[in-house]
# Entry
Amino acid sequence: MISAKVCSLKKKKILVVGAGFGGVFVAKELARINRDQFDIELINNNNYFVFQPLLPEVAASTIHSSDAVVPLRQLLRNVQIRQAEVMGIDFANKTAIVVQGFRRIPLDVPYDELVIALGMSVDLKRFPGLPEHALTMKNLSDAHRLRTHVISCLEMADVATDADLKQQLLTFVVVGAGFSGVETVAEVNELIHRALRYYPNIKHEEIKVYLIEYAPRILPTFPADLAAYATKRLELHGVEVLTGIGTKSATSTAIELSDDSIIPTRTIVATIGNGPNPLVETLGLDMHWGRIKTDRFMRVPGHDGVWAIGDAAEIPLVEQPAEDPAHYAPPTAQFAVREGRQLAHNILAKAKGEGLKPFAYTSKGSLASLGMSKAVAEVYGVKLSGTLAWLLWRGFYLSFLPGFASKVRVLVNWLMNLMMPPNIVLIQSSLPSTRYIHYRKGDKVLEPGMLIDGFYTVVKGELKLTIDNPETGEHFEKVFGPGEHFGERVLLKSALRTGLVVALEDSTVLWISQRDFTRLTRAFPYLEEYFKDYIDRTFGGPDRAFAPGSAERPPELESLR
Ligand SMILES: Cc1cc2nc3c(=O)[nH]c(=O)nc-3n(C[C@H](O)[C@H](O)[C@H](O)COP(=O)(O)OP(=O)(O)OC[C@H]3O[C@@H](n4cnc5c(N)ncnc54)[C@H](O)[C@@H]3O)c2cc1C
# Structure
């Protein structure tokens, strides 16, 4: 008797996984409409909510990265927040398996109702070289990395002595001309041109910015005349808009397009390739176009108490949906917010034993910023372009931004940006210390006299090393194929600088940073022995200096050990 009473008093546990627009708004609405009946927990891998439409402005230095996000604990005061990575879901036992904190021991978090709002991720696998060499625009670190990358390209170009390298550094390519591609190219282009006054060795004419779109026109969700206006504005500010052209492949120094043309560049930003969230993909749920199939009430069929919303979910908008994207809720913030709110009411209705309401919403319009205080907008069927649209864009996003403090911060950033020069402070963010690099046939991987930056293992293709010692007249050549490696001779003290390494065919190498390689060989004496022996056999003795320069490492490199 007592236990039955305790059970009936027990609050239902609503677990929301993913704190994007969908997850945040369902949790917020649940807490608002019936906080006494539910225990609401929100799990996200970061402790903040990212306002994705502002990411291009973070990349352009207009908004400071920490001002485009809102801490979840401040945003959702009546919701339990858990910063953790969701690793799996056990539908039979109604638990989410998470990993959190220092002790990376999987932990079960139980639920009565589960909301999957994990969004989508970027999948560039269809384009060889793009996953390794393209920057993406999905989260805060992407935007921060793009900003850092663009500024460091300007820094390097300003002092570059090689004309080809300078042109590569000053060429910026954005792939995909939906909202995010157009806004990214516009904002980054504005940052570059505004920053040039501080880079005396770079002329405006040397900057090349491309927007590549496979469809016949940019902004496919906008009316054709607004898209045409946007194209004209971008071109007016020096952006070359290439439509009807796809991307074929990429290397560290170029992008190849579907018409076989090659654009030499050190900056490729990919805003294409929406793919399923990697966790969602493993859940064994019915998927379509990379999204979880739901019914019109946002329930996941076959799994009692499981719901899905936002980009991760494919929610039908009509009774009998056909193979037509227009029959499903599109992956936009506008829809994710409404889905979240509606779902909160459906969860409450289910708890009360009342009927559920199918999701229904019609887009109120679209807005896209074009930089330089211009935008395009279509709101309630009214089309606007130019400064008025830009003011509307800013006003709309400001009102939409959750939290008073974040509204004030963004407003201050915008005002500062209007009055002050752009912030070009370069805070180096480190690239992964192990990564794949693709080279096209003929690319120079290392040039004679370069200070080595890491250890290279050939995964695919062939590369040729040539070392000439002008003092002794000695000449050395070696071709490296898959499984062979280079760079160790320079890193392991026998010489300071490299020879010439050229790709004999399209090749891929696995690169390990100098610091990690030295640590690895120090930690594993067998490895160090292997390399010493290898250098001995290949180059004729570890202390034989083929390349000019001291055999000793300079103190700053020694300190890395
Ligand atoms: C640059 C850019 C500009 C955009 N501009 C607009 C616009 O102007 N208008 C518009 O309507 N839409 C716009 N969008 C689209 C919009 O932002 C998305 O549709 C929306 O964010 C989707 O919300 P969501 O909640 O489904 O997913 P997301 O916002 O992607 O949130 C998913 C959350 O889940 C977390 N997560 C994922 N996997 C795990 C895991 N295993 N464990 C824990 N947490 C996890 C992620 O970190 C993230 O916080 C834009 C998108 C981008 C990238």
Notes: The first helix runs from residue 2 to 9. The two ends are 68 Å apart (CA to CA).
